[in-house]
Prior knowledge:
Blueprint: H1 2-33, H2 56-69, H3 75-86, H4 90-103, H5 108-120, H6 124-137, H7 142-155, H8 159-172, H9 179-193
Helix pairs in contact: 1-7, 1-9, 2-3, 3-4, 4-5, 5-6, 5-7, 6-7, 7-8, 8-9
Amino acid sequence: MASGKFGMNLLFASVAALLALTAATFYAKSVQTGHRFAEVTEPSGSVPQTPSSGDTAKNLADLEQLAGGDPQNPEYPSRIGNIYYDLGRYEQALTYYQRSLTLHPGDPSVETDLATCYHYLGQDDKALETLDKVLEYAPGFSQAMFNKGIVLINGKKNVQGGIKVWEDLLRSNPDFPHKAELEERIGQLKGSAQ
Length: 194
């Protein structure tokens, strides 16, 4: 019995690691390709970047100042939310993602990040509600589908529901960047359910 629980915990840890890897990949690609919003230029002509080093406090202060100077621009609250998200400060990230969505409703990337914050805060029903909303206006949005599977499996303990969402993800997005890893996880989950 104990080894079965250990195996299940190990499996969930693997799924969580896959989520982290996929989230990091999506985040890196969105920063590189500008998927979240069109680039917004500071008055000096340079574009603030999300910090990757110990400059977090300074970058947050800089972004707050820019947001104050351009309060109708959804880019700044989204970037501030990303910094807080990366720091694991999900309450603060949630606040900034909501602010960004007030200015620019219907951004599937920001709304998916918002849902992930809800999940990390233990509000899995709210996370699923938000992800379902994203999938209504952006059917097949792979990041939302992937995260919905995570919330169903890890948060709601609905392994079969999570597997179904992930299988739908692979059918609707045949070029999903982590297809092989996800297929392997689905196989593991199906194997452990028998």
